[in-house]
């Protein structure tokens, strides 16, 4: 009798433990608040494609805990007014979310996620924007100052004769902050830096270039819109600038518009970025091939892997924390996801493996490239 | 209040109030876009007072209101009787200047914006009720005052100025003082809207106050009807709410829909949907009904 009683207790405990982690949903849904309409709709489309590609791969490999996952695109339309209402809808049901993407929408909508204690991954913004909403989001990139200072210093060290640098800066979003980080990196090497402000609505660049050249710089750094960068470079070449490798373009400038508008004029310039298109792994090669299939032969651009990785990170969080998707446990399971995401160890991303400590990635590399015939050539990896 | 409904109601109220802030100066043919700049400045001022200096919200609201009003008054000293085009230019310039100031002002977060504004009254739920109450209280008060203005001698004088400024002046209307009055009132209203806008989002970013807002408010007035306050009251929430209900594929075209609606209305129905004649007819019908009811009551007695 005693034995029977013991067996019954063991069975009850085992059942309750097993039932505790039993998945309660027929499909994992991850809303993705993204600017699918408006001025950055094309970039938003690439970001959405990355998240959907991760979901396709995960589902082809058996889903999350055997259950399929669906990324639901939610259009925030580049509009804080719309973004708040959409986030207010999402926090009513979602376990976790992705986005928002555009910084003013993040600023308007993330307080709603924080207030409702729901994790939402702003994987395309800088550390400085994301860190305001810790622990209900994490940063995809390390702090700007630390990282970019080292990157720009690595570029300057390639040309020891460089003593004076002019920086073209457009005052929008996190760009001034990035420009400040460049200044710290360069002045740390003993260089002097002068700033030329690029108005957001500038269409002609002659006067700006004259002002820059008047400072007699040895090198130039660009922190502005990619199309404007290409036009400034054309203007510089027209006025006799020939040291092309002494021109450095920041990561947000490394976009399709730079190449399409710049053409042959950008040959020889240096760009820095966080992804390395020359990595040769089956996963990255497959991603590149699928991206090319979807976008008429284009190569993935710098933000393409962000939300792909974000979906895989959420998958890992759900699997490793015993989340069930049970609506009754929504609050508790949202917290589990946020806690796990803040300190992921050895996460196998699309390009490399990294750790996250208290919401901040700790060991992600960055790269310097030079442009040859419209294509990137790896110059240096900076850790 | 369910969260999505709360955000819809509060932002719709802001859009109505800001459309009225544009409507009122337009009664004297002034397109006074400076209200958007006032909204931003008062919002940031209140955000700084509450978020950084820990000033109670009530004082910050009053400060935002007063700041908007004083700034509006000072500017109106120069453009109180300026032609429409000059007022438009001043408005655009003010938005540019305001954005540049905010972008370069580190104490309000420059291009990173401000975040973490606290819940007034402590809890998020109490905060939401208070913001809703304040907004709809302000809506009733502003609506009442604008209604009284429209039906007063000042309102008739404004109509005369709108039709022919010179003629109105020759009849004894002080177009400058009238312009100053409506501009100052609009800027005060915009100041209050800026403060409440900041506390709806509990954050601020310079891109909350773009020319996009000018487009929304202008569309609300011209599609709704610029000759009465009721046009903006109906059009502002509809223009904001409709895209939220449309399927995503159609939503993507909302700016085109706004633009097309604006052009169509300007061509086919220049006074907008709610015209003065329409409002007069409604008022007559209502008063006739009231008269009939009173007559019946008297007969019964």
What is the oligomeric state here?
heterodimer
Shape of chain A: elongated
**Number of helical stretches of at least 4 residues of chain B:** 13
> What proportion of the residues of chain A is helical, as a percent range?
40-55%
Helix content of chain B: over 70%
What's the N-to-C terminus distance of chain B? 46 Å
Mean pLDDT of chain A comes to: 91
Shape of chain B: globular
Instruction: Please indicate the percent range of residues of chain A in DSSP E strands (runs of 2 or more).
Output: 15-25%
Number of strands of chain B: 2
End-to-end C-alpha gap of chain A: 66 Å
Query: Low-confidence parts of chain A, pLDDT < 50 over ≥5 residues?
Result: 11-20
The beta-strand count of chain A equals: 15
Protein chains sharing the most extensive interface: A-B, 37 and 35 residues
